[in-house]
Amino acid sequence: MNYSWNWSIFWQLSPEGQGTYFDTLLRGLGWTLATALIAWVIALAVGAIVGVLRTTPNSWAIRLGNAYVELFRNIPLLVQMFLWYFVLPELLPDAAGTWIKQLAQGSFWTAVVCLGFYTSARVAEQVRAGIQAMASGQRLAGTALGLTLPQTYRYVLLPMTFRIILPPLTSEFLNIIKNSSVALTIGLMELTARARSMQEFSFQVFEAFTAATLIYLAVNIVVVLAMRALERGVQVPGFIGAGGAQAEH
Amino acid sequence: MFSGFDFDVIGRSLPYLFREGMAFTLTLTGIAMSGGIVFGTLLAMMRLAKFPPLALAAGAYVNLMRSVPLLLVIFWFYFLVPWIGQWLIGATQPVRVGAFLSSAITFTMFEAAYYCEIMRAGIQSIARGQVSAGYALGLDYWQTMGQIVLPQAFRNMLPVLLTQTIILFQDTSLVYVISATDFLGAAAKIANRDGRLVEMYLFAAAIYFAISVAGSYGVKLMQQRLAVIR
Amino acid sequence: MISIKNVSKWYGSFQVLKTCSTEVAKGEVVVVCGPSGSGKSTLIKCANGLESFQQGEIVVNGVSVGASDTDLPKLRAKVGMVFQHFELFPHMTVTENLNLAQIKVLGRTRQEATDKTMALLKRVGLESHAPKYPGHLSGGQQQRVAIARALAMDPLAMLFDEPTSALDPEMINEVLDVMVQLAQEGMTMMVVTHEMGFAHRVAHRVIFMDQGEIVEDAGTNEFFGSPRSERAQQFLSKILQH
User: Fold this and answer.
1) pTM above the 0.90 mark?
2) Reported ipTM
3) Taking the C-alpha atoms of B198, B201, B205 and B207 in order, what is their torsion angle to the nearest 10 degrees?
């Protein structure tokens, strides 16, 4: 094999003039995490609302929620990214469209919004499943005490739901981190994009992609450990976490 | 809002979009699904094996594939396969591998990790008594797995396997980054050639949507049918 | 035929079998009874190697079950087993259930296997159900098919693990009748069961187990007439009250 290995490539200066290759990879990681975190906030907020909508007694709310989820689940993420980046500015009134196109860090904000809504549909699914997994007795108990429907959701249903769905939500958060790589197609220089450009400039293909792989693995481990600590921290005594199964008395 | 758009471009490019683009997408999905399920089932059996090195190796592979973005895996195989080809056939230079072959290998290897977890759950859901009954009759491990456990596990997990295939179908659009001409790639080519991004991307989205929704509906129908037969 | 010598088994630190020893001669019918958790199911599962054991020796038809060089599938082909939950293969018809091991393990042709299958189904009174799936049969019918499936391998001995415990009361007799007939034809049988009527009718010996030990091992009349151990007496008095 006549591939010339060069593991010290990471300490060489990148031709892009912003430090070593290692620095560029770290900067890419920074963009990956920033995109993932802000998109996650959107995904949680919107997803919780849509998930709740699908469990209310109102059939129009259910239909709206279902349509929302179906829309975002049946179009590939990359296509959605293109729709937000290329199509939306053209469909808006001229002033708005131009403003978007001239936005500094346009790829970043487009990626954040796209990922946020894409993931919100999946969060909505988890929230809906979590609420429905709890025995309907909880909702009845809340209403019997005189709580209004919104109050029942806020004080009774949602707190337990989020504990139940912490494990699948962890998966979704890890997915958002991985999916942020799709934004490289609209020019966001996140981690995978940086690895690719390192490969293009230095020709050290395997070193570049190995580094990216190891960094993603490390991020995974950190997130999984953090979420496990969170699960333990918010655990309700007597419940075996996911599924809301009751412990033996 | 829709003035100034030329939706006729869609009609004019239909043959190219479907004969080249969709054919690529569907073929890739088919190959990755079959190869992925076969390899995934093997991985699942390895993960459940009593022999620790096998279980650990399979577990490490599955966890690696599930921790890393698909785009990175696409790049990995795109650059790795030519070197492996060179090593396999003893050539002097990396073998030139087209985008299709590279994608086929990538998606088969990647999806196998996901199909593995599905089949693992399926195998574990088969009552231990079935395995005991097989052994009691004198069947060996491979006969018991092949005749008794896997047919049942596969039947039980079919809806989940098909849902994963729909996800795979959507994921194939990522071959865009290695300039492969799948359905999205074909739409993008027309879009950039004729300057009709809005029309082409909206159309592509609509087609992916229609196929995915139809697929999910089909799976739901199948689930209802299977439930009745039980 | 079946020789169990000083067999002990542990699950982790819990000892589930404590130096159990007994013999089942050719043509003998031995019933194994005892309270739940006494290890009786575990003991007969050790006899055909479905469960492993850490100490002792089990020899079936001259073959040592625990030896590392034993061809277990070959041994199991000669020892039939019937399970509490029938364990018919739900994705195969009755005929296919009986044919499978005949073809794959004994190497019979499909025709030979089917002939044998139909003969056995006739013997248990279920030949009209041959093309059906287990899901369409009652519990009693499924268990009789399971017995036929084990017999299709022409076994030298049959092991029964609580064959009627999962059946509705009205179906227990149809299964016991098949087992009685089998015993009267001279099959070597080891049966874990609570059905004392069956023991009275055809068993030569009764073994009583409690907490992993064989507490009593006596001829049927002796066991029921004058059980020696206090535990066996207590057990008998409880179950014979019905």
Assistant:
1) no
2) 0.89
3) 110
